[in-house]
Structure formats: C-alpha cells, structure tokens
Design brief:
Blueprint lengths: L19 E5 L2 E5 L5 H7 L25 E2 L18 E3 L3 H16 L15 H8 L26 E3 L9 H10 L4 E4 L6 E4 L15 H5 L5 E3 H6 L4 E6 L8 E7 L2 E7 L12 H5 L14 E2 L8 E2 L2 H19 L4 E5 L5 H15 L4 E3 L6 H10 L17 E5 L3 H4 L1 H12 L3 E5 L8 E2 L2 E2 L2 E3 L6 H14 L5 H7 E2 L1 H8 L6 H8 L3 H13 L3 E5 L1 H4 L4 H14 L10 E3 L6 H6 L6 E2 L3 E2 L3 H11 L11 H10 L4 E5 L3 H4 L3 H10 L2 E6 L11 E4 L8 E4 L4 E5 L11 H11 L9 H11 L8 H7 L1 E3 L23 E2 L18 E6 L24 E4 L1 H6 L7 E5 L4 E8 L7 E5 L27 E7 L6 H15 L1
Parallel strand pairs: 1-4, 14-15, 14-26, 16-17, 16-22, 17-20, 21-32, 22-23, 26-27, 27-28, 33-37, 34-36
Antiparallel strand pairs: 1-2, 3-4, 5-8, 6-7, 9-10, 10-11, 12-13, 12-28, 18-19, 24-25, 29-30, 30-31, 33-38, 34-37, 35-36, 35-38
Bound molecules: iron/sulfur cluster (SF4) (3 copies) and FE2/S2 (inorganic) cluster.
Length: 939
Amino acid sequence: MSLLKEPDLGTPARPGPATVSVEVDGLPVSVPEGTSVMRAAARSGIEIPKLCATDSLEAFGSCRLCLVEVDGRRGTPASCTTPVADGMKVRTQTPRLEKLRQGVMELYISDHPLDCLTCSANGDCELQDMSGVVGLRQVRYGYEGENHLDITKDTSNPYFDFDPSKCIVCSRCVRACGEVQGTFALTIEGRGFESTVSPSAGELFMDSECVSCGACVQACPTATLQEKSVVDLGMPTRSVLTTCAYCGVGCSFKAELRGDELVRMVPYKDGGANEGHSCVKGRFAFGYAGHPDRVLRPMIRERITDEWREVEWETAIGHVAQRMRDIQARHGTGAIGGITSSRCTNEEVYVVQKMVRAAFGNNNVDTCARVCHSPTGYGLKQTFGTSAGTQDFRSVAEADVIVVIGANPTDGHPVFASRMKRRLREGAKLVVVDPRRIDLVRSPHVEAEHHLQLQPGTNVAVINAMAHVVVTEGLVDQSFVDDRCADFEDWREFIARPENSPEAVEPVTGVPAGELRAAARLYAGGGNAAIYYGLGVTEHSQGSTMVMGMANLAMATGNIGRDGVGVNPLRGQNNVQGSCDMGSFPHELSGYRHVSDDAVREVFETLWQRPIVPDPGLRIPNMFDAAVDGTFRGLFVQGEDIAQSDPNTKHVTAALEAMELVVVQDLFRNETAEYAHVFLPGTSFLEKDGTFTNAERRINRVRPVMAARTGLHEWQIVCEIARAMGYTMSYAHPREIMDEIASVTPTFSGVSFEKLDKLGSVQWPCDSSAPEGTPVMHVDAFVRGKGRFVPTPFVPTSERSTRRFPLILTTGRILSQYNVGAQTRRTRNVVWHPEDVLEIHPHDAEVRGIADGDEVSLSSRVGETRLRAVLADRMPVGVVYTTFHHPVTGANVVTTENSDWATNCPEYKVTAVQVGLSRAGAGPEAEWDAESAVSLVDR
Ligand code: SF4
Ligand code: SF4
Ligand code: SF4
Ligand code: FES
C-alpha cells in the first residue's frame, strides 16, 4: 500500500450539510457554509496552487499564490481565506493569475538555495512542485542581493534539523505548533525581510519549549524542517499503514521505507485516533526495533546462574513443552500458567490465553493490565455493564467541562492531550484532580478553572464529596436517573450523609471545601461534562471504588450516552484494552464473560474441543505467592517485564527464583529474563501482523513493515508450544485468529481484517446491530440495561505516613520515556530523560538538608533505592514523586504489595517513604548510571 501523498484540500472541513453551491472553472460544486473557495475547488477536482495553506491548519493567507478571480468582485482574492457564497463563479486559471503567481514564485526562488538536486527534500518539496505548477521559467532578480542563504542550521534536536536558509516564512510550522500540538513553541520574529521562524524567542530547538511532536516538520512545505533520517537515508519510496505501539491513544502512522529500510514514521491524516498528529515517541522513537540489543535467537539454560545457550526454535519449543508437562506431572495441572502482554496484538494475546486454557488445562492466565487498569474493568462493568470507556476521542470536541483525574495527558497520552487542549482553547472549562500540578493546570492558552490538589489516596473522598454537592444542592438530572438508572435511592441516602460533605472530608483530602463545591457545580451545571482518568485513579487500594464513584457522578448528572460526556480511561499501554477484551483474565473469557457461565464455556469448549475449568485461575500476585509457597512452578511471560514493573520487586524476584521454569518472550533481555530458563525472542510492532485496540475501543490494524527478524511470529511460537504439549492450535494467518475471536465474542462478531482494511478501524461493539462499530456507548440504554448506582464508602488506605516514613511517594510517567523504558531507552529519547529523578518540595528538601541535584536515598518499609533529587513545588509538602522508566533506580523496589480490594491492582500511587541524603552522595556512581542509560543508544 503506497500512501506517500495524501490529498490536501488546502483548508479544514467545515461541519454541516453542503448547502452552498458555487461554480469553479465552470464545474458546479456544493459545500458546507464557511468552506473556503480553495477547498470547494479541490472538492470539484481543481487544485489551486498554494504554499501557506494545508488542510490541517486554519488558513493564513500569506503566500498569495492561491489567488483567484471571482465574477462580480474586484481584485484577486486569496482562495484559502475567501469563503464560498451561494452562486459564486470562480476562475482559477487566467493569464492574469498565471502572471501574478509566477511573480510570487520568482520572489521566493530568488532567496532560496538552488540545490534542489542535492536537497534531502528533492521530490517531496511543495516549493519545487509549485514552481512547476505555476510554470516558473526565469528569476529576473538574480541571487546577488540581500538574502538568507547563509543562516546557520539548527541541528540540536536529535530527530530533525532546522535550516532557515530554506524557509519561506509561510508560518505553517508556527500554526501547527499552536493549533495542532498546542505547545506554541514557535513564533515568527521580525518583520518583512527580517521575518524568521524562532523557537521560544531565539533559542535552539533543544533549549526551547518544543516537545518534538513533529507537527511542524510535517507541516513544513520545504526542507527547512526535515527529519535527520531522511537526510541520512534519502527520500522514502513506499509506505505501510500501521499503528503506534507505545500508548493507548493508538495513533495511525505511515511507516515510510526506502527499499526495506524504515526511514520515517509519518502520522496518518485519516487515523481515527490521531487525525494526522503524533508525539515524539510514535513519530521518532522507533529505532529500538533495530537495536543491537535485540535478541534474535531462542536461548535456554538449566539454572539461572548458567550462561545462556542459543538453540534452534524447534529445540526451544520442545524444551518448554516438555518441562511444562513434567511440572504438571509432578505438581498438578494448576502448577503452571501464563501472563499476557498489553504490548502484543489481540491475536497474540488470544492465543496465549487459549494455550493456557486448552493446552495447560487451567485458567492461570492473567494480563499486565492487572497492574494498571483492572479496576476500570471491574468498576465500569458493575455500573455500566461493560469494561470500557464510553466515548471516542472525537467526542472531547463537544465537551463543555473536562475533568481530568489522576492522569497527565500531555506526558502520558500526548496526542489526545492536543485534541483536549484544542477544545479548552475554544472555551471548555477544565477541572484537574491530582496531587501534582501537572502541565495542563497552566499551559499556553489553557488554565484549569479548578485544581483539586488532593492528598494521594483520597480520590474516593473527593468524588463522593462532589456527588454530595450534586445531590444536596438539587443538581441531579432526575429524568435521566429515573429513565436510565437503578438503585438510585440507596445511593442518594448514602452520598447525602454529612460525612461525605466537602467540609467533612477537607481535613483528609486537603482540598478546600469551597473549591470542591465550585468544581462539583461546574461539572453538574456547565453543559456537557466529560471525565478522563488514568492510573492515578486505578492504582489505589480503592481503585475500583473510585471508578464506580466517577460512574455514579456521571449518571447522577446525566453525563452519559452522547457526544461530549462520559467516563473515559486513558489506557497506558498500546493494547491494554485489547488484552483485557481477549479473555486473558483468570476469571473471564473473551468479551468479559465469566468462566463459571456454562453457556459461555460451552461455546469455547465446542470450538476448542477441550473442557474449560469453571473456576477462576490465579491472578498475577497469587501466582507469585504460590510460587514462593512452592505450588506454582512454571510461568510463560509474554512481553512483560514483571521484575521491573510489578510492585515489591523483592517478592517478585523471590517468586521467579523459586520457579523451575520461567519462559520469557520479549525483544530484549530484560530484568525478568535474569530469572528465566528459556528466552524466546519476540517481534517488534514493525514486524507484527494483527490488531491493537486503543483506549476508545478502536481496533486498528498493525501491518508488518518488515519480516519477523526472529524467523517466527509470536503467535506461531505459542501455537507450536501448545502443539508440542499435545493440543493442536493451527492458523495460517493472524486473520484466522481474528475470525475465531469474532466467532466466540459477541462484541467482536462483526470484526474482520477485511472490514478493518476497508473502514480503517472500528470501535467495538461491532456486530449485526452496529456493523461499523460504536463510537459512543450507552446511548439509549446501558449495556447492562439500567445503569447501577453503587455506594462507594471511603476507606483510607492502610499505607499511612509514619514517623519513620513521613512522606508519601506517588509515581507517574514522562513524555519522552515509556513504561519501563525498554524501548525508549534504546532511542535518542534518552537525551530528554536519562535518569529517573525524585521531585521533592523545597520545604521537605530543606529540612533534610537536600539541595537540587543531590543523590538521595528513598526508602519504604519494603525496600530502598537511590536517585537524584529535583526540587519542585508541583506537589504539596509531604508528597514526593518519581517516574519508573529506568531499571537502575527501580522505583518499584519501594512500592508495597497493597492493592485494590476488588482486583489486586497494586497501590503504586501511595507509598509511605523516607528520603535522606544518600550516604554515597552525588558521586561518580550516580553519573555512571545516567551515562549507561544514554550509551544504550550508541551500542
Ligand atoms: S520552517 Fe517551513 S513551515 Fe515554517 S515558515 Fe519556514 S518554510 Fe514555512
Ligand atoms: S516539534 Fe512540535 S512542539 Fe516542537 S516546535 Fe514543532 S510543532 Fe512545536
Ligand atoms: S500519543 Fe501514543 S499512540 Fe500516539 S504517537 Fe504518541 S505514543 Fe504513539
Ligand atoms: S495558499 Fe492562500 S495565501 Fe498562501
């Protein structure tokens, strides 16, 4: 599929019916009101020359190349800034226009380097194209006059260069940075001839506010902003449409190749999740797929202290099967299990849970979503009837009030954050509920109306207090509640109790009652109100309670079932939604159906020809406990670094050490692999063929950009292990796995690769009643019939600060790094975040004698680590914050085993800690750590 050039209609679409009829060069065309003449012409198949216009940005009208003549009007208006009027007759090609356009182009070219043949953008330059289109044949002004040809290049960004000598000052980059990305890092400085593009007022790109999203590079019509990879490797010649494998936004990209070499990833304009935008990770941080650290051949060893031995696939697969069977013979069927990965495709996850259920003969399969969004699954199923967010991303454009709880979208879900910021700039109101002052609280042209800076661990008290205000101040949407919901009266009685009032909870939450009341009134009375939340909601001892609390609030105010409202998890990894959908929980088969349901089991048993155990299997923490007890002895781990990402590292590694067989399937020898007996090399997203499901339930195709470097796909390996254990699992292609998923999963019954290829993507439920998918859920009725109110009493976590551990640690992520960093640490992204640091309030630092940059020890009741302190007042006094992207700091060494009461999701967000100056001080060792992270890139 070659998609190098997507159509560009010049200016953005306008909503509404095509009611305005015009004639362009004699061709009739009807378009919505407000459409530009340029776009109307493009709609009728006529391309008007342009340079400063592109359909992802509002028109600016600076280049004067798109001039047209309009009957009955004087002059030659710019078609990009002129809206259509009914009956308008437009001419785009006349001798006068030709002359004017040639004159404009002459001026541009007279101040442009004449190195087209050696320019990296040769063949992909709109200036070059337009010179041809307008028929430029001469430049009368010569090249000797004053010009910009000697301006120095800015090569400071690791991924793209800025060569101002080629700039035509069209301002597309400036507008892209503002309108699309919402960072406003670029300006045009100076006037007239002196005009020049400038990052953050004259700084280098790397020193500016630029977040390297690439939007300006994408928008630039010349080689002024150009990917370094294009400069180095040359212009791509073909492209494959696929999906980013970093976060749950699920952006669509064109992987552009030159021969078999991947040159760049370009965001796809028709991508449902991203609409042509990207962040630094998906756009640029793909180099890890070719990193020399990749393991490409299977390896085995008897003991974890032995050296690894490379073997053939057949040997490795036979070894795994034989050892698994041997363990079962000695310790019982339930002594082995598997963990699926949210980094893998739906098809890869599905076959692992099938292998566990049909070949292992138990339900000991769990997913890494256990440690992130399992409370979302539980909470939304209890209240709404299904375990997924309610809206598509597009819906945020209709929100009047946006409530962000325990999420940091500009770092964690950047492309969705850009869509959200656009709506906020248009006037939607923002409420942020977070212990930390995230960037969204105040950023260019965006300021939160309310920042409820609560103490970590008090989410439920805050959401209850907001609901208390709604109920006691007469803000309930009674007709919605009466028509659509059940169990309201019990909940109303509970929530109206005085102990749930903002005043009563203020001493615990730290949120001023007046502020909380104002936020609740805004949510209930400000129009369409939408909640977006992240791991700051789920990773708590009351994670599931909080999810239900948000659902209660949305139902009570009628903010469910239409555009602009809803309760929406911002999923962490690329396929968290999908890995949960695929039945990789110990208690649920695909589509969230309980294993104890005889009718559901029968569907699978008939197809698989194997009995399925009706009792739930072990969750991940239960597997670890059972391993330490000696009853669980063999584990297959698909693409997940549990030794780094799961809480209480000591306990996890003790469990891994206790097992007879640990099989790791991954790209790199990660921390878990240190405890493995078999390493099965995995494929990167560039090699995979299948689907990912993003946070808005959107099923996107992942297409292979290159052949599997390991020789076998992950789903093939899993099928081979099952076969070697005596159970035949056979597919000719991943499309057949999706066909099987569709045949056993009602919400996927209309999904197939063919449909995805035709429609681009679909959002489940996709079935006979919604053959093209369901962007917004619960429109006329909840999936469970009536939405169910569930009382959500606040129970403080048992993790309290004490004299020994007086601070509370909470964790999060940063834009440039991803999860445990296995991928991003192997890219140039490390220049932005070479190490995890501890943010500590200046007051807490001062009383401990800690200065900015000191190395400090961070200890909890389960462990201790060291990192560098950064003084920051983003958190309240008494709260410290760190990220978990680098194994050298191992933030999870200190996190405890406390977990959500319903799902066992770890309470990563609340750990009582002490911080002190490290005895070693900020010495050479600390520096070595940071350097070693950077050096991963160069190896
Ligand atoms: S850098 Fe590119 S997009 Fe920006 S003003 Fe110059 S030519 Fe236009
Ligand atoms: S890369 Fe993104 S953030 Fe940086 S200047 Fe360009 S548009 Fe702005
Ligand atoms: S927002 Fe997420 S899915 Fe999109 S490019 Fe960035 S990391 Fe990839
Ligand atoms: S494209 Fe219309 S003025 Fe530049």
